[in-house]
Specification:
With 574 residues, the chain is mainly α. Among the domains are: 286-401, no CATH class; 406-573, Arc Repressor Mutant, subunit A. The chain has helices at residues 2-27, 41-49, 53-64, 70-86, 90-101, 110-127, 130-147, 150-166, 170-183, 193-208, 212-229, 232-248, 252-268, 275-291, 295-308, 317-332, 336-356, 363-430, 448-463, 474-480, 485-496, 500-518, 520-523, 527-533, 539-550, 554-573. The longest helix is centred in the C-terminal third of the chain and has 68 residues, at 363-430. The termini are far apart. 31% of the residues are buried.
Length: 574
């Protein structure tokens, strides 16, 4: 009984302590400092835009306390969203636009809501979140259409064009662009900065479609208009686009003239959002010098970018592209230490980009990357050849002493290998594919149903000859069989007895052996064409794997299989 009374007393005291604390917490609310009580919303905007992050939160709280005129507050949110967008603080820009949208039930001003959607769409576009960007530009377009506001329709469609270009939907982007060019004459945009912006947008589309004459036509119109408006941003963009066109047309003097015009403007004037224009100018100046074999000049411009960027910029595609070109320059100079250094950085950055990027295609940059990746492969092959030549020149005298004997021995060995290979092909053609399974006591425990599904998926891809596609890789194949790369690697190792690269190589070489044996037309192809047919980007890569798999050169196998078929035909005719 005494214990029970003690418990009751304890609970009573506990409630006595908690209730005042809870009540005080409920009553606590933000108290406006005396120094800010008389500040107008406009004055608070000035404080927010000129203060550090710690003080901004206080000013925001004060701003939130204004309820008398929500339209005024809405305009302020738009002003702040636009301010932080221009400062490239896209997260804060989106935050302010969303503050307005969260008041939609109170703020019924469609112009403000349109502006909020536009700011969010623009911010997501700059962050590379293209699907979200498109969705918000489309919301802005719906409001503009409801209002029948042609000016806002053009603004929303300008954003849609940029996103469609990133998504490689160039025909749709071009269709909207042409509609806007016709509509702009009916608006206050005519002959203004937004008119120039339409020229820059449509030129982005024409660049992606490689319609270079159209780019030059609209660039000249936009440049003349920008000059009359003293619109430096428009001039920079259009000069760069003309420089890119002349680079692709290999008219390098014209390319230099236009790119230098853009660079002069960037150096002399305060240009808004100058990151991308600066990186583009440096890249295409370097690319022109690279084509002219002036590798030191090219390296100099690329280092301008490396000195200019911050760590957060390394994930941006033009910067990644610049690392690749820098590696190529050093390969050309045969400075292999620097070449491999920059190539390794490029590979790491590009891997992260490919994993994190939205499902979009930047046609212009992808084209450049493909070109320079191919070149770097060729240059690395040349590097290896140079090493072999150096070693060969030292040992040539010794090799000549044994060349006769070695040749005879090699021919005899090749004949034996060839005979065994022909028998192996007959055996492969005669037997059905057998599934092998490893003991499940591998390093991981694998779910049988999941393994079966993956193995069936692999079998289907083998039947479809997916392994012949040049883009066939671990990542794409994992997606097609609906698993991840780690799991697929382990399954292939456990059930095929090899790693992924060995698995694909075996399928390709076995396909080549069978088809060369049975297809006379295929035997007439060049080794380079055969390599392309079975999924290799170069004949060197194909020949290397063919030799590793069979012990023979492709040309030797083709020559002897042709002779064997002719002998068989003669025997059958007799």
């Amino acid at each position: 009984m005494a214990f029970f009374k003690t418990q009751i007393l304890f609970l009573f005291l506990l409630l006595f302590i908690i209730i005042p604390i809870f009540t005080k917490a409920q009553d606590t609310k933000f108290i406006i400092p005396d120094s800010l009580k008389t500040k107008t919303p406009e004055a608070l905007v000035d404080l927010i835009t000129s203060s550090d992050a710690d003080h901004i939160e206080v000013y925001e709280e004060v701003l939130e306390s204004f309820h008398k005129n929500d339209t005024v507050i809405g305009k302020i949110y738009i002003e702040l969203g636009q301010f932080f967008y221009m400062k490239e603080d896209f997260k804060r820009s989106v935050t302010y636009a969303n503050k307005l949208l969260n008041k939609k039930q109170i703020i019924t001003n469609d112009k403000l809501i349109f502006s909020a959607y536009r700011i969010i769409g623009s911010s997501f576009l700059r962050q590379g979140k293209y699907q979200k960007s498109y969705d918000y530009y489309y919301k802005a377009l719906q409001i503009a259409n409801q209002q029948e506001n042609l000016r806002n329709i053009i603004i929303a469609n300008s954003g849609r064009i940029l996103v469609l270009q990133k998504m490689n939907k160039l025909d749709k982007a071009l269709e909207i662009s042409k509609e806007m060019l016709q509509a702009i004459n009916k608006t206050s945009f005519k002959n203004g900065k937004n008119h120039v912006a339409i020229f820059t947008n449509i030129n982005e589309v024409f660049l992606g479609k490689e319609e270079y004459d159209s780019v030059l036509y609209y660039a000249d119109k936009g440049i003349n208009m920008s000059k009359s408006l003293n619109y430096k941003e428009g001039l920079v963009d259009l000069y760069i686009k003309k420089g890119i066109v002349y680079y692709y047309k290999k008219e390098f003097d014209q390319a230099f003239d236009n790119l230098k015009s853009a660079k002069d403007l960037l150096d002399l004037y305060k240009i808004g959002n100058k990151f991308f224009p600066t990186v583009k100018v440096n890249y295409y100046m370097a690319a022109c010098y690279y084509e002219q074999r002036n590798y030191d000049k090219a390296i100099s411009y690329l280092y301008n970018t490396m000195d200019f960027i911050e760590e957060k910029d390394r994930s941006r595609l033009p910067v990644i592209q610049s690392h690749l070109l820098l590696a190529n320059c050093y390969f050309k100079k045969k400075d292999y230490k620097q070449a491999h250094y920059w190539e390794n950085i490029y590979v790491k950055l590009n891997k992260n980009y490919q994993e994190e990027k939205d499902k979009t295609v930047n046609t212009i940059y992808e084209k450049e990357i493909e070109k320079h990746e191919k070149e770097i492969t060729q240059l690395k092959n040349k590097e290896n050849i140079s090493k072999y030549l150096l070693i060969g020149s030292i040992t040539m005298s010794l090799i000549l002493l044994f060349i006769g004997f070695t040749y005879y021995k090699k021919q005899q060995s090749n004949k034996l290998v060839f005979s065994e290979l022909v028998e192996k092909i007959k055996h492969l053609e005669g037997e059905k594919s057998k599934k092998t399974s490893k003991d499940s006591s591998a390093t991981i425990v694998i779910d049988d149903k999941k393994v079966t599904a993956v193995l069936k998926g692999l079998e289907k891809l083998e039947d479809e000859e997916y392994f012949l596609k040049s883009e066939c890789g671990l990542g794409l194949m994992a997606k097609k069989v609906k698993t991840n790369t780690t799991y697929l690697t382990k399954i292939i190792h456990a059930h095929k007895g090899k790693n992924f690269n060995e698995y694909i190589t075996d399928l390709r070489i076995e396909y080549a052996l069978k088809r060369l044996k049975n297809d006379k037309k295929f035997r007439a192809f060049s080794v380079k064409s055969i390599a392309a047919e079975v999924g290799y980007k170069s004949d060197d890569a194909f020949a290397k794997r063919f030799r590793a798999k069979t012990g023979l050169n492709p040309s030797y196998y083709i020559k002897n299989i042709e002779k064997l078929q002719q002998d068989n035909n003669i025997a059958e005719s007799v």
